[in-house]
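**Polypeptide and fold**
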Amino acid sequence: MKIGFWNVRGFNRPLKHNGVAHLIKHNRLCLLGILETKLAASKIQALLSRSFPGWCQANNFDTIAGGRILVIWNPAVIDLQPEDFSPQVIHCRATNKSSQLSFYISFCYGLYSVVNRRSMWEKLTDLGKMISIPWLIMGDFNCVKSPEEKQLGVTPTWYELKDFVDCCAALGVLDVPTTGCYYTWYSNNESNPVWCKLDRVLHNNEWLEAGLHCGAHFNPSGCLSDHSPGIVTIFDHTPTKPKPFRFFNMWAEYPEFLSTVEQRWNLHVEGTPQFILCKRLKALKAELKAFNMQHYIHISTRAKEADLALQDAQNQLENNPKNVRLRESLGDLKRKAVFLAEAERNFFYQKAKIHYLKEGDRNTKFFHDMVKRNAARNSITAVTRADGTIITSADAIAQEFVDYYTTLLGTESHTIPVDDGVFDYGPKLSSELTDELYREVTAMEVKDAIFNINDNKAPGPDGYSSCFFKKAWNVVADQVCRAVLNFFRNGRMLRQLNHTVIALVPKSEHSSSVADYRPISCCNVIYKAITKIISDRLAPALEHLIDHCQSAFIGGRNITDNIFLAQEMAYDSVSWTFLSRVLHGYGFPPLFIAWIMECVCTSSFSVSLNGPLHGFFPGKKGLRQGDPMSPALFLLGMEYLSRMIKRKTCNSDFNYHPKCEKLKITHLLFADDLMLFFRGDLPSIHILMECLNVFRDASGLSVKTSKSCIFTAGIRNEELDEILARTAFVRGEMPIRYLGIPLAAQRLSVNNYSPLVDQIAKCISKWKSKLLSYAGRLELVRSVIQGVECFWLQVFPLPAVVIEKIHRLCRNFLWNSRRAPVAWEEICHPKEEGGLGIQHIQSWNVALLARVLWNIHRKADTLWVQWVNGVYLRDASIWDWQPKKGDSPLLQRLAEIRDRMITEFGSSEAAIEQMTRWSTLRGLQTSKAYEYFRPKLARQPWKAAILKAFIPPKYSFIMWLGLRNRLATRDRLEFLHEEDLCSLCINTKESAKHLFFECPFSNYVWSHIRVWLGINRRMSTLHSAVKWLKKEKTGSSVHNKARHLALSCTVYTLWRHRNEFIFEGAVPNPEGLIISVKITVYRLLLSLFPHGLIAL
């Protein structure tokens, strides 16, 4: 089914009528939204009868002047019921008559000003609250979501973007994958052209949950409008091939798992150790599939049925408490329900590949949601060929990718020999390092290599994760070690072990051609273990061989060193012959080179497309992203370029950049990102281009001129034109993005920080906050968003306005866009001071920059520190240096931090002494610096008792809100003028104190919990209860943890029970609540003390 929309900029001319009719006929549309028609309502019916006979229409002309939105549809194909009309939105319910697929669709046309558009965002937000089925939103929003969506013209400000960004975050909607034109509007002004992405298509989470796939294609605007028409295709996408075997980690938790493996593992096989291992792994698959069918198939259904069975038994026992059979069966039902719930969570946790949520918060629905979103993002339903044609057939798409990668990776590259003299411009391997490379590989190294592979890493072609080998190690260890050690002894790799699945990840939201997808190589665990051993031995050699101008993948070197001075990998083009030659040139021993080249040269590939595997072809060149060895090998290849440049620039014709001459800096490298520095004269550019061309001919790695720029200052236009002609590069303008960070010649403006804010907003838009508890959202804020911030905070002093934007995004996500009950500044305090341990951004920024200041002080052995000392300090002390106007904004900020410390400590000597206390041999510890710089409150250590690691975060979070009196009890909602009596007893005004301790309902619950745990003290408030817990140390460790868990769990369950009664009409059930608390506490204690839990 195909749906379209188009801002036609007036629909009164016959030429435009014909253009729309052609769009419908050519694309076989059944529904079209026509925007900015400028039609009179009286003309619609005649136009419809003449140009679109038999079609129906709906419009919003009664709500706003100017003929804004007209929707037309073919009633023979689609049943459309318009439900809401507003000046900027027509909202409809649509049903495909053939498939009976039902969904909502909203056509939008945003007004021109920020203020006038706000009613559109409010309308969409209101509609979203009432929608629980799939929903598409499409149209001309007259607004972009990020500065990157506008080309030329005035850069949009955050004020112009934030309403759209906030609306998308509140609705949890995502962009539909698009092809065709990225910029959907063109200004048609040749002297001042501007391109913008104003038109787009969004879908809600329910669209993914329904398993629907769709794609949007934007045609060129043509001569009839300045907007591109959008065509949305809803695919009935079903894989035509079976999906390959995959080991799910939840299987390993079943009691019979090891016996199942052991029975099949003793299969007698003749052959080499590698062959025997592969045969046994293959034979085991059938057993594991049967094992899955018996115990785990339809895991969500099984988990739900087990939970319902447990609840039913609990209800029966409540009515018949003396029934011995029921009491005996309850324990088995409880264990089964807990086991299957954990299995379901682990299943989706593994598929979602999210590693930043705490184990204590199950978040099964969230993981399920992320699995759907990842599947939709990576689903490929259409591809644009080189000739511009679009293919949608699954088989044709698969063949297109197989042909592309067969040409890219399966075609041998012809290169020239390397110049052995180049290797003399840097160190070679020492005898000590060579001896370490030769050292015999042990079985313990094999085990360590496998056990260091993440359990949830995507498996290779054999389908086994590292979790399988870890859990079954006692059974499989002997054969695994024999196979790996066999490789290192005879230097031969079984090709079956080295087969690779190419997984396709879109480089952007606008990926359309095969080249727009990044190939990630999924290798078998056994192969990864071999190359991890090799790469671990390579690490010391890299530190010795690689020049300081390279920062990637080397321990102790920082990506920010390159950013201070100044990714898509080119792995797939590296010549294998070149790789072998450079390894010999650096002095690697022949046996070690043979190991590496055997791993590289025995590779073969299949392409994974929407699940099934397609094609098979041997590799002939390139390194694999996903192979642990590839980063180190790529660095060694790029080091040859680095030494070649060093050798060529010794030529007297080369002229250094004025600020690089003292240290002889000519270039910086981070993986395949290269920055070259020179004075800007033709002889110098000739030398550098000669280096790049010779390197291309030797390695197969060529410069992408379309992505390469020249940045100049103080050069005459004639000279610049000659340089551009010689290089075929384009002239660049500051600021630029380097390694994801903007570089500018002067202080960055607030708009230059938009990529940071936009990246955080995109992170948030991926997560549907209503599927997470407060604690889950808090953990995402802490782990992911602050990880994004940290990268920037190491490099730039963030302006206060940018920090406030980040706070706003985090605050809205944490509180689900509701009014925040606790100020963000209060959250950003340690737990002992009543906060939640979120880092205070401004203080963390200062702490990270203080580390930079310390590196300059101690003259750390980095290229950037050497450059600062040479260019700015001129060998003076950073403590005496005074910045001048025009100096680096970063250094000016470092001077401010230095002056603050001198003022607060009394002298530079005292400040240095203090920073020395914060430091180790590895440098300044930012955690200690942060502790000094952050704002502080009075310590209340007892408050940290509720935030223990063993207490599930969602319980701790409700306790934390309760202690601050920030739960939405009715005494705090008096401004709503609603009933304020306690919903559980209906006798007394509801407050946190009453609800949790004074209410007869909660009193009854507590009396049973106290008896159960042997607690004699009667608690009257949350504060007194937590203080008592802090002081109470009697009993075993199990009892202490049980008391903590019981308090948090009871408070959480009472609060949830109260909300279910108010909002869902649940019946108060104190006995069920008590059983629920006991089961939860037992389950948590079992996870803490699996072998030593005593009866409570």
User: Anything to note?
Assistant: The chain is about 45% helix and 10% strand.
